[in-house]
Write a structure and sequence with these properties.
It is built from twelve helices and twelve strands. The chain is an alpha+beta fold.
């Protein structure tokens, strides 16, 4: 069997509920209306009884002033019918002492009943009242006198039907709106199952259901991007590992297979193998750092950081490499420039920027790091060197993982190709931004903003 759509289920459920409530309401209302109209008729019968008793000795005369459809019966205290304006022969009529309305009148002074008359063979609405010497019973024939009075007003039934139809149409429109996000999600799932990545034409309504649908698609897109990133990263890592691993293997195989190798050559091969091992170690460390930034940033402790002292620590750690290339660092960062953040990441940020300049900017250069401004939310810094810079067409991709401005550049320098990607992710984690351009006097200029107060946010790097 074909499953009913969500929209049809809503329509059926609400329509059945509405119909049930309407029927119950109509039943209660009609019964109340019927009871009320019968009570009105009974009140008329009560008033007639009082008049009839006053004219009991000339009751035939009194009937001329009463409604024609009114049945009048006089019954003595023993139950014998002594007068009935409808029945032709009262002598042959049964004793009425056991009639429900007479029994009630005997006990309570008056009584009423809706029953079939054994004498006339018709249904009547009876009212009986006990007087000292007799019972006065008045009644109306049900089909001709009572039923027309208590029939429901057709206009009310029409209004109820129109209202019911209007509400059902409203439910139909409401179900259409409610089902829109469901239909959009179904379309989205079908496209996912068919491997189609075009979700731009899927539209959700502007309500809470639509907001949930948009978040689902947004989350799925993020998962797809993460999957693609993982695949790309795995491919790039395998590619990057292949060269040093192959080199180390070749050096070691040469040492193992060549027995008559000279000490100088042996030393050369060991130095080369050691250099490739260092490169592998650097690559693995950088990959691990990137993964921690993107997936487990909470592992890094948050603390107050002096930017000037952090730069000084990096400069001390890279002292020999800076001295080797005659590179000077000029720090123009004030002592008051502090943030709350992850110290290891801020350290990695400046270390990777400086190492990038050391490896690629050239020798005899000056690296300048200065604070530009500060407000209630962010600090603004500039990192610049006066080296050889980067061709403009490469600047947009300089922060991409494993991206090379020059073919073979990272391999020759021994870098992992992840340094500037780590820089960007560290900045993003601190809710900041980083941009790069070629300086007017050569070299690269990086403008950096960092949040003063650390807050956890998802990395989009």
């Amino acid at each position: 069997m074909k499953k009913l759509s969500y929209r049809n289920l809503i329509l059926i459920y609400f329509s059945l509920l509405l119909l049930t409530v309407s029927l119950i309401f109509a039943y209660i209302l009609f019964n109340n209306e019927k009871r009320f109209k019968i009570e009105i008729l009974q009140s008329r019968l009560i008033s007639y009884s009082e008049i009839i008793y006053k004219f009991r000795d000339s009751v035939s005369f009194a009937t001329e002033f009463l409604p024609e459809d009114l049945r009048i019966t006089l019954i003595d205290t023993t139950g014998k019918v002594i007068f009935d304006n409808i029945a032709a022969e009262t002598d042959s009529m049964e004793n009425h002492i056991d009639r429900p309305e007479i029994i009630a009148a005997e006990k309570e002074g008056s009584g009423n009943a809706m029953r079939r008359s054994g004498t006339m063979g018709k249904d009547y609405l009876y009212y009986a009242k006990r007087f000292p010497d007799l019972y006065v019973r008045t009644s109306l024939e049900y089909n001709s006198s009572v039923k027309p009075q208590i029939q429901h007003d057709n206009i009310f039934i029409i209004i109820l039907a129109v209202t019911l139809c209007t509400v059902i149409l409203s439910i139909l429109m409401l179900s259409r709106k409610i089902s829109q996000p469901i239909l959009a999600l179904r379309e989205f799932i079908e496209k996912v199952q068919k491997g189609k990545g075009d979700y731009e034409n899927i539209h959700f309504p502007s309500n809470e259901f639509g907001e949930v649908g948009e978040k689902i698609i947004h989350t799925f897109r993020q998962l797809e991007q993460t999957k693609q990133y993982k695949q790309q990263l795995t491919h790039n890592v395998a590619h990057e590992l292949k060269t040093p691993v192959t080199s180390v293997r070749g050096y070691l195989e040469t040492l193992l297979q060549e027995e008559n190798i000279s000490p100088e050559q042996r030393r050369f091969f060991l130095d080369r193998a050691y250099s490739q091992i260092l490169r592998l170690s650097s690559l693995v460390s950088d990959i691990s750092l990137l993964n921690n930034i993107e997936e487990a940033s909470e592992r890094f402790a948050s603390e107050k950081i002096s930017i000037k002292e952090c730069i000084k620590e990096v400069e001390d750690d890279l002292h020999f490499r800076l001295q080797e290339k005659n590179i000077k660092i000029v720090s123009e960062v004030e002592d008051c420039i502090e943030i709350e953040g992850k110290y290891l990441l801020i350290y990695s940020l400046f270390r990777n920027l400086i190492e990038n300049a050391v490896e690629h900017a050239g020798e005899n250069i000056i690296i300048t790091i200065k604070s530009l401004s500060k407000d209630n939310e962010f600090i603004y810094l500039r990192f610049a060197d006066n080296g050889k810079g980067v061709p403009p067409e490469h600047l947009e991709r300089i922060f991409d993982r494993f991206y090379r401005v020059e073919s073979g550049r990272s391999r020759k320098s021994g870098g992992s190709g992840l340094g500037l990607s780590i820089v960007k992710n560290a900045v993003n984690l601190h809710r900041g931004e980083i941009s790069v351009r070629n300086g007017e006097n050569g070299g690269l200029e990086f403008d950096i903003s960092l949040s003063i107060r650390f807050k956890k946010e998802k990395i989009n790097g």
